[in-house]
Specification:
This protein is of the alpha/beta class. The chain has ten helices and eight strands.
């Protein structure tokens, strides 16, 4: 699949996410307008973006600090920001290998400029084509698939529509991992959002590089088939292993969970 053409008039899912995070650098008017439309429909959307970022950090700390993972593939990594995966991982275990994967040419350009260094790579590939990712020479040169690894799919699978076989996509990555590996996953839901507001937020992505497809808890749980969820299971991403979480203050917009590959997937 050819790489997308750089077009500043078209919102980028990665840059819209940065806008929601409050990271305006390297975004364009179309990205900011889309983020504004999303926030108008769902005022909690910027908070959910920050909660997802915090979930990612906690998940990486668990994977590296408690599960002993030393190699990570971050699918749909988005724009490099402070507290990126390799920075969090290396606070716990210096030398952890990280392969970032994204399809956005702006993400790739900034990633290559900012992330250059030993044991960290940025690969341009479409995560909907698992073989292209898993067989990329840069990935296979960094990640030893005979040893446990972690694949991060945070806030990315909701950009893959049912017609694009998202369960199959996720399964291909799980199957490639050695027993003792992990996946970490977060996914948008609109279970607590009025239908009209959800549709309005989704329309903000109509002209973007990827559309958004929120799913129910039951549908998101299917992505973990064949794995063993670690405690506390699939929960509000804001609450996952978060001792400061206060339930009931905001609506749930993201589910999150981490699971272990126990064998038999390859």
């Amino acid at each position: 699949m050819p790489a997308p053409r750089f077009d500043v008039t078209r919102p980028s899912a990665a840059r819209v996410y940065n806008c929601l995070l409050g990271e305006w650098k390297d975004t364009f008017a179309a990205d900011r307008l889309a983020a504004a439309k999303i926030t108008e429909a769902i005022p909690d959307a910027p908070l959910a973006a920050r909660q997802n970022r915090a979930f990612l950090g906690r998940a990486v700390r668990y994977l590296v600090g408690e599960a002993g993972i030393r190699q990570i593939i971050d699918l749909g990594s988005g724009m490099p920001n402070p507290g990126s995966v390799h920075e969090v991982a290396r606070e716990v275990a210096p030398g952890t290998r990280v392969a970032y994967v994204d399809f956005d040419p702006v993400v790739i350009a900034h990633g290559n400029a900012l992330l250059a260094g030993r044991d960290v790579i940025m690969v341009q590939a479409d995560i909907r084509s698992p073989r292209a990712v898993l067989e990329d020479p840069a990935v296979t040169g960094l990640i030893d698939f005979a040893r446990p690894a972690a694949v991060l799919m945070t806030a990315v699978l909701h950009f893959i529509g049912d017609h694009e076989r998202p369960l199959w996509v996720a399964d291909q990555y799980k199957r490639r991992l050695a027993p003792g590996s992990y996946i970490a996953l977060s996914h948008a839901t609109d279970e607590e959002v009025p239908p009209g507001k959800s549709k309005a937020a989704q329309r903000a992505y109509d002209d973007a590089t990827a559309r958004v497809y929120p799913r129910s808890e039951a549908a998101i749980r299917e992505f973990f088939e064949g794995t063993e969820l670690v405690l506390p299971g699939l929960v509000d991403a804001a609450s996952w292993r978060n001792p400061r979480y206060a339930p009931g203050k905001t609506r749930r917009l993201l589910y999150g969970g981490v699971a272990k590959i126990t064998g038999g997937n390859r």
